[in-house]
Each structure stands twice: as C-alpha cells, then as structure tokens.
Design goal:
It contains eleven helices and nine strands. It is of the alpha/beta class and 274 residues long. The strands form two sheets. The chain has a seven-stranded mixed beta sheet with strand order 4-3-2-5-6-9-7, sandwiched between helices. A two-stranded antiparallel ribbon has the order 1-8. β2, α3 and β3 form a beta-alpha-beta unit. The chain binds S-adenosylmethionine (SAM). It is found in: Cytoplasm.
Length: 274
C-alpha cells in the first residue's frame, strides 16, 4: 500500500483552504473515512463514482479498498493533489474536472455497474440524490448510493408513515429502494465543522412495483404533501382521477398525506397510471 502524507499536509502544501461557496467541509480522520468506504461492502475491482473528492480523503480510502474510482470535482485547486493520488495508485483513479450536476454519470462506465459515494454540499447532494432515484428506467446502473447528508435530511429519507419527517423524499427513497442510516457523523469530524450533525445514508435498489409510472407517483406525492395538513379530498382535488382512485382503493379521503403508507401511495399512482 503506498505511503501517503497526512491529509492536513496535503491541504497545506496545495493551499487548499476550505471555500464556503463550494460547500467545503473536509474529513481528515482516516479511520472514519475507511469506515465510510466500507459501507457499500467490498469494493475490490469494482467501479466507483465519487462526487466531490476535494483533497481526496475519501478517495484514498476507496483506492486502498481496491476500487476503480472515477471522481468528479469542480474545484480546480484539487486537481494537483488528486493527480498525486492517482500516481500513487496507478490505473485506479480517473479525475474529471466539472460540475457533477451537468455530467451524465451513467455514460462514464459504459455498460458496467458502479457504486456511488459522495460527501457533498447539502443542495448539490439533494439534487443529485433525487435525480438518481427518479426516472422511469429501473433498476438503475448504480448498485448503491453511500452519501453524507445533514442528519435532518437523512431522517427524512428513512422516515416512516405518521412521522413529521415523512414526506415526498421518504416515498421517493423507499418505493423501489431501501435506504438506511449507516452511521451518524459528528460535526466535529469536519474541517471546518458545519452547524449541524450529519449522517451517512446507504441506499440499494429493489424491484420496482409493476404498473406504476414514476412521474405519476411524483405527481401524487407532490399534491398530497404540498398541503400536508389538509385532508386528501382537499389536497388531491386538483389531480384528475385521484379522488375516484381513493374510492376504488377504499382509502378514506378524510386522511392526511402523512398517514398513508408508501404502498398506499404506490397503489394510488398505479390506478392513475392505468
Ligand atoms: N470528499 C471530500 C471530503 O470528504 O473531505 C470533500 C467534501 S466537501 C463537503 C464537498 C466537495 O464537493 C468539495 O470538494 C467541493 O468542491 C465539491 N463540489 C461542490 N459542488 C460540486 C459539484 N456541483 N460538482 C462536483 N463537485 C462539487
């Protein structure tokens, strides 16, 4: 295994002070990074897409685990330290300089499957996450998502019916995938520390229920949770056929969105997709 300098030395050598505009909160604890890289299971010889490698802390843990990493980073200053890392692990690391929101990820690996790992700023992470979970084609090319989120967002992803955290994000994350909180990460693990606690979310795809359009399910949850305190008869009023679907399915229109199970949302969308 190549001997690498401590991450703090890499940062200092390249003048890589964290920039707020790019949502940079770096991780330096190599034991923690190793644990995060182990969340998706063994990565030896597997393809990994890492988004936002920054100075390469998680990247080095992935390379040490034997992964073939393609990393997308938009901060030019990180290119030199990442190139050094690539030299230490010949043939294992490809770095793409650019905005991950504008790059077609699936095309990077041809027909091969890949795991996705990222520690990203909140807004970019959420936009990519919803993109990876949306769309009609399923199963996706990615085999798992291992992503750092603010703890509050992670709790919304895994939330169950009847909780305040249950909403569109939970249904999107759970109707054809299985999300779990793999570990909580204290704010003090980051440099600089963010204001709130974080958590690593791990998501694996499951079978897609038959006869349901992803777009229709999105329309149903958008309407239902758009007015989450209202009864379904009010919140779903504007969605053609929705009130009749509730009746067909025997779902009481006096219920509110957060009392429905993910399966009930799927069944409403199925009737409307027919
Ligand atoms: N992975 C490193 C770590 O864990 O220490 C850095 C994490 S830092 C929270 C987020 C990284 O994502 C930064 O290096 C930032 O420049 C990069 N980034 C932010 N927005 C991005 C985008 N749209 N596309 C690619 N990288 C982005």
């Amino acid at each position: 295994m190549p001997d690498l300098p401590p991450l703090r030395e890499v940062i200092n050598a390249h003048g890589l002070f964290a920039t707020k505009a790019l949502g940079q909160n770096f991780l330096f604890d190599e034991q923690l990074l190793k644990r995060i890289a182990a969340v998706p299971g063994t990565l030896r010889g597997k393809n990994v897409l890492e988004v936002g490698p920054g100075p390469g802390g998680l990247t080095r843990a992935l390379l040490r685990a034997g992964a073939k990493v393609t990393a997308i980073e938009m901060d030019k200053r990180c290119m030199a330290p990442l190139a050094e890392l690539g030299e230490a692990f010949p043939g294992q690391l490809t770095v793409i300089e650019g905005d991950a929101l504008k790059i077609d990820h699936a095309s990077l690996f041809g027909d091969e499957p890949y795991a996705i790992l990222a520690n990203l700023p909140y807004n970019v992470g959420t936009a990519l996450f919803t993109g990876w979970l949306s769309g009609e084609a399923w199963p996706p090319r990615w085999t798992s998502l291992t992503l750092m989120f603010q703890l509050e967002v992670a709790e919304r992803i895994v939330a169950g019916t009847d909780s305040d955290a249950f909403g569109r994000l939970a249904v999107l994350s759970q109707w054809r995938a299985k999300p779990k909180i793999a570990m909580k990460v204290h704010r003090s693990a980051f440099t600089p520390p963010p204001k709130v606690m974080s958590a690593i979310i791990h998501v694996t795809p499951e079978d897609m229920p038959e006869g349901v359009s992803a777009r229709m399910l999105e329309r149903v949850t958008e309407a239902a949770f758009g007015q989450r305190r209202k009864m379904l008869r009010q919140s779903l009023k504007g969605l053609p056929g929705a009130l009749a679907a509730l009746e067909t399915l025997g779902i009481d229109a006096a219920r509110r969105a957060e009392t429905l199970s993910v399966a009930e949302f799927v069944s409403i969308a199925r009737v409307l997709s027919a």
